[in-house]
Design goal:
The chain is α+β, with helices and mostly antiparallel strands and 279 residues long. The protein has a single domain, classed as Double-stranded beta-helix, CATH 3.60.130. The protein is 27% helix and 24% strand. The chain is built from eight helices and 15 strands. The strands form four sheets. It has a seven-stranded mixed β-sheet, with helices on one face. Strands 12-6-14 form a three-stranded antiparallel β-sheet. The chain starts with a strand and ends in a 7-residue tail after the last strand. Bound molecules: N-oxalylglycine and manganese (II) ion (MN). The site of manganese (II) ion (MN) has 4 residues, from loops.
């Protein structure tokens, strides 16, 4: 078996070839190769893998502990991503995937953000529904020295309300109450990882910079997000049936391009739990 890893874009993402779904479980070298490549490239694309849900879960367990909360799917460890409420009764929340985000920035408890997320395309949209990725490690690396100094001590409040408001502008009092029932979280803007690398903690859940006037705060967060997700820094994955993509949720933000809520698009997601706080 020869694993080949080819960059997809200068800023983020690589395509992995030379692996079939059986070798994910039988070849131990694959696990280290995937973890290494994920750290280097942020996003890994496996085309035509046709991973079955059980194999997906078993492979992700080799990468770390996984989320086994019920996910609208019979296989433990799989969460069904679909806007069709007959397939996922919480589908309306998933509209928030249309904005750039890090998974797990506003957990119910003190869980760390996920380490990695894997999606396999079970059904694709007739149009739209691509998934886009941008490196927040890269976003930090492109800052000037004076910007790094300016951002180093900033802290940001993240909330479910901030991300949901982007897709539901006029919430009902009931919706607001549910969103506000989820505790907001304060995170540093610059995440210093165990590896020593730094990334920016950006995306839809950012509510405001602590202690900064609200207009200035929004302008700063929007500017950083815009630069992080400039078109030339984004990898956009156009899905075909059987594709699998995994991303490093600690150093990459992602979003889905809009697709019709009636679309058959269905992604099977497995989440590898985080092992480091945002600090
Ligand atoms: C997710 C997510 C994007 C997509 O499952 O966390 O953001 O393209 N999905 O479905
Ligand atoms: Mn997501």
């Amino acid at each position: 078996m020869t694993i080949t890893i080819k960059k997809l874009n200068h800023a983020v993402g690589a395509e992995v070839t030379g692996i079939d779904s059986a070798s994910l479980l039988t070849e131990n070298a694959v696990v280290d190769a995937v973890l290494d490549a994920l750290e280097t490239h942020g996003v890994l694309v496996f085309r035509d893998l046709h991973l079955d849900p059980e194999t997906q879960v078993a492979f992700c367990r080799k990468l770390g502990d996984i989320d086994t909360e019920p996910g609208h799917h019979p296989v433990e460890g799989i969460y069904r991503v679909s806007l069709d409420t007959s397939k996922n009764s919480s589908a309306s929340y998933l509209r928030a995937t249309f904005d750039w985000h890090i998974d797990g920035c506003t957990p119910q408890d003190d869980a760390y953000p996920q380490k990695a997320t894997m999606l396999t395309a079970k059904a694709v949209a007739a149009s739209g529904g691509e998934t886009e990725f941008a490196s927040t490690y890269g976003a930090y690396d492109t800052l000037s020295e004076s910007e790094r100094a300016q951002l180093a001590s900033l802290r940001v409040v993240h909330s479910l309300e901030a991300s949901q408001r982007l897709v539901t502008e006029n919430p009902t009092p009931e919706q607001l109450a549910v969103w506000r029932g989820r505790p907001s979280k304060e995170h540093p803007l610059v995440w210093t990882h165990k590896s020593g690398r730094r990334s920016l903690v950006l995306g839809a859940s950012t509510d405001h910079v602590v202690g900064m006037e609200s207009g200035e705060s929004r302008a700063l967060l929007d500017d950083l997000l815009r630069r992080c997700t400039a078109p030339e820094r984004v990898y956009r994955h156009e899905w075909s049936l059987g594709d699998t993509v995994i991303w490093d949720n600690r150093g990459v933000i992602h979003r889905a391009a809009p697709y019709d809520p009636g679309s058959p698009r269905e992604m099977l997601r497995t989440t590898v739990l985080g092992d480091e706080p945002i600090q």
